[in-house]
Amino acid sequence: MKILRYILFPVMPIYFLVTWLRNKLYDLDIKKSVSYNFPVICVGNLSAGGTGKTPMIEYLISLLKDDYKVATLSRGYKRKTQGFQLANETSTSESIGDEPFQFYNKYKKDIDVAVDADRQNGIEELVSLEQVPDVILLDDAFQHRKVKAGFNILLTTYSNPYFNDMVLPTGNLREPKIGAKRANIIIVTKCPEGLSEAEKKAILNKINPENYQHVFFSTIAYSDTIISDDLIKSIDNLKTFTLVTGIANASPLVTFLKSKNLKFEHLNFKDHYNFSTKDLAELDKKELIITTEKDFMRLKQYESLKKKLFYLPITVKINDKNKFDKLIKAFIKH
Fold it and tell me: Which SUPFAM superfamilies does UniProt cross-reference here (predicted)?
């Protein structure tokens, strides 16, 4: 893969120019964006996946759901439906996508979960509901310039920050680094515990935020328990198991499990992987399977796996949480 990226290096300037020009046309108002007179918060990244958008959306849901009617709007990546879909009791990961299905399963009593590749149309559909949302959270829409969110949260990982990266196909950036200037908040995600103030300052200097931008650092907090549809087990009591992941970067999870001195084999699939009949037959031979919550949403539909399938919950911990929360709530109020 790395060799192929180096071979494609001559294509990179073309990709850079096309994405830069597209953004410039929006910045100059030649290409039109639609803005709204109610709170729309976008969570996205410059990199191609794996920055922690899903737990960040869930953090915002938990922060806001008790005070506001919240709706999430995602593209619904790799779903088998078209157009606008509002999640309901018949929805599956195939009809609305992995992450939206996860949101719906966890928060269906509190929020609306919708998908639409056309975010403008999706927002119009949401505001036409009988109960109009007070706040709409756009999942992975930083490059969707047809919609101008009132507030942009940009995520970048500690291990591969956007300021050290290049645009596709040689690097992982979907657009040039200057796109970060559109963000109101930049969060460096998946940081190690105990990140020193000196290292935070060094990262802050490289980001070089504008006066209107705020930078935060976050870590992943893993649960001490694993969960199935029916059971909860302590992770410390596990003997051996199979770890199954279909996410962009499983390294933090693997590192955590190894730090607990647990014995496991790791079956690592690509992000949003569609498990084949052969894959499922192999998984059926395993005694205990632990996976991510996103992968759990896809795999739990298979009856043969239900009694052996568990997921490890994660949450996001943000440094200076009070300041972050106040910024979000201040935007919504004003």
Answer: P-loop containing nucleoside triphosphate hydrolases
